[in-house]
Queue: 2 jobs
Job 1
Amino acid sequence: MMGGGFHGWGNDASAVKGKRLEVAVLRRAWGFARPFRAWITGFLTAIVLSALLALVPPLLFRSIIDTALPEGERGLVTVLAALTVLAALADAGLAVVQRWCSSRVGEGLIYRLRVTLFDKVQRMPIAFSTRTQTGALISRLNNDVVGAQNAVTGTLGQVLSNGVVLVTTLVAMLVLEWRLTVVSLVVLPLFVVPAKRVGRRVQALFRQQMTLNAQMNTQMTERFNVAGAQLVKLYGRHPEELSAFDARAAGVAAAGVKVAMYSRVFFVAMGVVAAVGAAATYGFGGHLVIGGELSTGDLVAMAALVTRIYAPLMQLTNARIDLMTAVVSFERVFEVLDAPVSVTDRPGAVELVAPRGRVVFDRVSFRYPAPSEVSIASLESPGSSALGTTPGDPVLHDVDLAVEPGTVVALVGPSGAGKSTIASLVPRLYDASSGAVRVDGVDVRDLTQASLRASIGVVPQDPHLFHESIAANLRYARPEATQAELEAACRAARIHDVIAGLPEGYDTVVGERGYRLSGGEKQRVAIARMLLKDPAIVVLDEATSHLDAENEAAVQAALEEALQGRTALVIAHRLSTIRDADLICVVDAGRIVERGTHDELLAAGGLYADLYRTLSGSTSTVGAGEG
Ligand code: ATP
């Protein structure tokens, strides 16, 4: 029915095909709905009452015809007619109550699921973020929670309502005249079987639309951001992008037309069934009335009742698949909630208090975790249903290193040597595969993540600034910082004058869509942000881009101030940083192959001497990213 390419992304029909309602999933779903049980009870009660109330008018009409009319009782006619109006009013009231309850349940459930998911995603290890498609993840928080909500307020309500209407109406009909009831049901199989097929087909088409919509979303989020848009332009891929988008949009449109037609045929068929049913009732019932076996009132009541059974019957034929679909949304939400969190606080983890900032790597080896340890297949790519279970090759081997408090250690080496990986183990972006990283003598895995990270300031190569004012970006490190403190940090980071010179000063909005700071300026803002945090340990990845002389001097001055009195692990690319470091470690293929001061290493004539020669001969960076 659907192309293989759609598997695993949307709730395609195959996701529910041959599936059983899993009790565990239902129980867990109920766990989320439980706080709303009073509202759910109100909702379901209103549905049942409304279904029962609907039986009243036909029975009142019957009394009017059979009792009041023959005896000419005007008063009774009026009373019965008035009661019909009352029933209609009561039904209207119930409809409002029902909607009130269902919106309380529905919105409450969406809220709970969203907040729970957001919290979970925030606690996921960084490896999860590096692997997951942001668009797919956002879709879980936007669409699937709505689907899950729909399971409770939509599908559950519908099944119950249809069930109650069907049973009560059939009972009433059987009591009134069983033969007529049987006749009215005879036409049903003619329609129920096709209805089932049409229902499935419409569902499949809906899924197809959802999948294509999700793909369009991903394409748009990836291509509309600055970096993506630039890539599209520079490679002249506009026509290809358009045709890919066009194909998906056309798919959505085509599926939309089919859905419209199938749905209309379904409803037209239902109308025909109802008409045939009514005709059969009057046709067969008319003979019974003439033969004196049935009263006119019974006939009218039966004809009114019979039209009420077909729609619920047809809808119930698809109830199973509806329920399954609804449950799939819950499953997709639970899938994220169940994703493994590989970096967690150990029970009894201790706080790192007033750290001195001694950082030690003790025989640390590391390999990047297997996808299955950190990620979810359906969030990685639309097509994948399983993740690799083999971890990467070892990236670090027996790294031993001690960074004494207040000293600067420079990591240098060729691209891909493992410098960034070493640095990422200190704030526990990843955990060592064997050996240990210790801060002040305590294994970082025995410290609380909050206190560990509070004592480490990381300045990456290309720091991220949120789409907010510079002041707000700086205060991300310390929300309570005063304007004077912001300015002091920025002066120390040699960026105050630049900011002060902007039209809106510290209120200038930066980030992807805001004012574009240059690479060097951005890094100095990040240094200022780090200074506001005032950590004992600094992990710094120097920009590899060549700065102009002015920027170079500013960054140099900023760093000198920033690293003053802190323990620093610097992935160094600039000669001045390297020469001034207390210790230089040369990293190659995941090992520290040389260590010493600039002079010692130069004298040794090893890899460092080579790197240095290349560097001082050409540029001002060592072991730059491009290798
Ligand atoms: P550069 O100077 O170019 O930034 P580096 O010395 O910092 O390089 P790392 O980024 O630490 O090197 O990479 C070391 C090795 O680990 C490389 O072979 C890289 O391909 C691999 N690697 C890095 N990040 C990941 C990841 N998230 N998953 C799997 N492998 C990774």
Note: Confidence is low (pLDDT under 50) at residues 1-18, 619-627.
Job 2
Amino acid sequence: MRGAAVPPARSRPGSDGTVTVAASNPRSPGGGGGDDRSNTAIITRTKPRTKRPSLYRVLLLNDDYTPMEFVVHVVERFFNKSHEDAYQIMMHVHHNGVGECGVFTYEVAETKVTQVMDFARKHQHPLQCVMEKK
Ligand code: TYC
């Protein structure tokens, strides 16, 4: 059977940004039953369809044991914050239980979390770092 489940759309967008169109074939004027082997064309989209990536917050969690100076150092080192900003973030976490160190794409956020967790573990502090989708 020919084209059973496909609607006879004249223009159909593809997932790859191409559009398949039915072009008129002078040898088979409407009505069906004619030769349709050459009446399609691929039109490639010239303007790229860009999608903005999902963003993720990287958060530090408070605990009772990690020294304040260590947290400040972590925020400076892995989130490229000034000493003053890092101190403010650390104090925010200390008082509120959780605080944002930065917002990144998935892979970058994942890398930050791993770097912080590895660094905390190496220094035997229980500091926790997590990511959450915005
Ligand atoms: N609450 C810790 C203390 O009093 C300091 C601290 C701040 C720990 C932020 C973790 O993410 C944190 N030593």
Note: Residues 60-64, 66-68, 71, 90, 93-94, 127 surround L-tyrosinamide (CB under 6 Å).
